[in-house]
From TrEMBL, chain A:
Annotated family: Belongs to the binding-protein-dependent transport system permease family.
Keywords, sorted A to Z: Membrane, Transmembrane, Transmembrane helix, Transport
Regions crossing the membrane: 28-54, 61-78, 98-119, 126-145, 165-188, 200-224, 236-256, 288-308, 314-334, 341-364
Protein location: Cell membrane
Single GO cellular component term: plasma membrane
Alphabetical GO biological process terms: glycine betaine transport; transmembrane transport
Listed Gene3D superfamilies: MetI-like (1.10.3720.10)
Keyword field contains Secreted: no
All copies of domain ABC transmembrane type-1, residue ranges: 165-360
Membrane topology: Multi-pass membrane protein
Domain of life per record: Bacteria
Full protein name: Osmoprotectant transport system permease protein
Automatic annotation (TrEMBL), chain B:
Organism classification: Bacteria, Pseudomonadati, Pseudomonadota, Alphaproteobacteria, Hyphomicrobiales
Compartment list: Cell membrane
Organism: Pseudovibrio denitrificans
One GO term (biological process): transmembrane transport
Family: Belongs to the binding-protein-dependent transport system permease family.
Protein name, entry field: Osmoprotectant transport system permease protein
Amino acid sequence: MFAVLGLFALFAPFLTLAANRIVAGEGIPVWAVAAPEVTGPGLIAIALSLVLSLPAALPKLRLIGAALGIVALVWLLMQGSETLLQGAGTYARVSLGSGFWFLFAILLLLAADALSYLAPGPLTRGVLLIGTIAALVLILWSGALTDLSIFKEYASRQDAFFDAAGRHLGLAFGSLAVAAVIGFPLGVLSHRNETMRSAVLPILSFLQTIPSLAMFGIMIPILAWVGTTVPGARELGVAGIGFLPAFLALVIYSLLPVVANTVAGLEAAPPAAMDAARGMGMTRNQRLLQVQLPLGLPVMLAGIRIVLVQNIGLAVIAGLIGGGGFGTFVFQGLNQTATDLILLGALPTVALALVSAITMDILVELAQPNTTRHQ
Amino acid sequence: MSWANLLRAAVCGLMLALVLRPEWFEPMFAPFAPEGAAIIYDRASLLSLSLSHLVIVAAASVAAVFVALLLAILVTRPSGKAFLPLSRTIANMGQTFPPVAVLALAVPMLGFGSGPTLVALFLYGILPIFENTMTGLSTLPPATMEAARGIGLSRRQRLFQVELPLALPLILTGIRLSVVIAIGTATIGSTVAARTLGEVIIAGLLTNNTAYVLQGGLIVGLFAVLIYDALTQLETFFQKRLGLAH
């Protein structure tokens, strides 16, 4: 099935060439992006990778095929963008076409499919993840793709990009840290006190329901009011617009997964283990730290995974209220109808979310107590 | 539980008043509007924006429910088993894509307006329902399935009379997740010129008119909370009917 889809994708426009960064480009099929002696090997490699995906019983072969295909795609991009730009005018832009995206998606799915069959252990997955990131960084660093439009957008706002990246990470990870500091004790208290639990969890899930744009919006007047009435708050940078309202909104969204998963994690300790701990004369805090915490760690880490992925996505909206982050590029791009500027904001966000999700999945698996693994 | 119903009625009333008679709230919002600016959003009627918001969410969600159920049923049949691991991976990884990014990426392909928002909401909405239905259908108690086979139910009968009803609470959880995300993402759809309540919030952000921001934010927030609550009630109802509730 993938092979058929992949063949169709080969006929879709691979790159588009436009006179400048705003107008819609003209699609160019993959065999025409460069001289035949350049595209030929690339096409053969992609075809080979699709053929390698056919034997269903050989997931390793499929994985190698997918990797080969992706290498071929990158190579075609490098050659194609350079050739197309020659003699096309100073403002000409080469963007990624639908054919590229389809092929890329199909090859990634092939790789994901092969990996889900192979079911590698957490360490192997970690090595694969680091390897992929290293390859990506190497390609970006080498400057091989600088002719593509998205990298021209990057080149013209290099400083702003790293600024935004820092802001984005600060928003996502900072709010997670604050939420963990507030949420963990709240979770422990809710675990011990039934009344508290029945009050805290519904309130937090109610807050979680509020649409993000509304939440960011409502934070603005509250913080503006604090900034003007509380003495000294303004000097600390408390204001209606900017980093702080976005940060606070993210903290509020993060609380539910942290608290709910802390409670669930603490309850995950089997009664027998708790009885044994009590029988050994452990105090309540000792039981918490030495029995419940280690046993509940995977569930709590799963909560952190939810928060991290959610915050990386939501931090994009901070761009709308002057909070910075990759959202700035996304919304600037939307305003200027400059597709590649949108991509410059959206792609790093997606990549960041994916990497965090995979990393957290690996950590969750590593935190599983040995007993459950042997069962 | 009557106090809960009372609260529900009050919230409903507040929402209707905000949508239908916004002028009643003028004194409340007045301190937030800049001098001389309009206090109540008047570039479009709040009612038409609300309706358009709800229609976009409803259309995307209904389509997503159909597609997600169909796909989940297909991959849990014996003939579709080969796709089950891949489906899990796609559902799992797909949900890490930020909804805003999906929306932003839909624009270059589909242009501005309500269309891309609808498509983005639909595509994103499939995942939670698909994942939950898949989990629901593949973790049924083996004894029940054995019994269903034992009393001579055909495959189709087993699906409609046993499997789907048993998976229903989990499916509904997926639908609720999906709808709540859709309401929020539709709000952001206004940045790509979809007609939703986000328009009010964004107009407020652009003109520094906090009164608009509050107005739009309150209505959307109340919508989301009410719909979330209604779907939770539905879930508890079905759980009770199945005898699963405590």
